From TrEMBL:
Keywords: Kinase, Transferase. The keyword Kinase applies. This is Kinase. Residues 33-139 form the G domain. It comes from Vibrio splendidus. It comes from the Bacteria. GO terms for molecular function: GTP binding; kinase activity.
Amino acid sequence: MFDQIKDFINPSKNPDLTQAQEYQRKHLPTLWLLGKTGAGKSSFIQAVTGDSSIEVGNGFAPCTMTAMSYEFPQIKPVMRFLDTRGLGEADYDPKEDLEEIGQAGNALVVVMKVDEPEQSAVLTALKQIKKQKKIKHLLLVHAAVLSSNETDRARQIQFNINQVETVWGKGLESVAVDFETDDLSNNSGSVYNYDVLLEKLTNILPVIGMMVVDKEHSTQEEANFDQVENEVLWYAGSAAASDLIPGVGLVSVPAIQAKMLHSLANQYGVEWNKRVFSELIGTLGSSFALQYGMKLGTRQLIKLIPVYGQTVGAVAAAAMSFGTSYGLGRAACFYFYHKNKGEEVSEKEMQKIYKESLKKGKAASGYEEN
């Protein structure tokens, strides 16, 4: 079984993975932004990605008649933003935008300037989206809140909450932010309530909390991993996407993971070969190899069950493939970091990192398990 796992993860010839990667790109976890022109949608994307050059027309690409998309990162994207245009048009139909969003964990972000109570175009669009019953998560972002004094701000925020709840229902999540402030007291730069914004976004789209670079780190190893984490997430997304294509996962998941390990080893200055691979898998323990092979095969068999396997089985397989790929990538980076320094790592520590990261990856995959 151990030799079979080595063949799985380090194949002599990688199959063509273009199909899985194209599928992934079409089904990236998506934040759908709704808001009037000037509400602060571009500033919102800048705040989340840390890319101050983002604006409509720079990095955005048309994807429907009424929407523009921005993939992040631009190379090996992990997620994307969908910005709906022309909300003031009476005949706006969200059907095409809903179809474009795809199936992987998606959420709706409504951006309203706190001092602009006239939101009829946004509310009309929300009514149509609500009728489709495809979007589960909504976050209301109150923008430019520092432009009002505290008394007015509280009243304005509550007014907009009431407007949206009338359409969407009670109990929605909201956050008050300002993208233009001189407060440099934290790593958010000039965004008021940045940490709260990220927390709320992570609750509705978990991958965001993992891809944000400006995190605090207790060790240099963690800081180094933060620099390559988006790449690990991209490979995990490719592996998950391949499980949603019938008959592909059994071949492509190990091949994708092999490419990931090879790339990560190079970035850590470690020569990738069979000896290093054997050492890496050895630190994860013999039970890892056995469980890996059994789980991979079982997930693919479940997918072959008519109807059930093509829906529930495929989604469960995608969540697990995302988790195992992220877990393997995280553990590998820990191993490569210490190997580059000539330091030994313990099986106990490696297994702990893998198991915790697998769980974290599954939660962030955007796929619900049944």
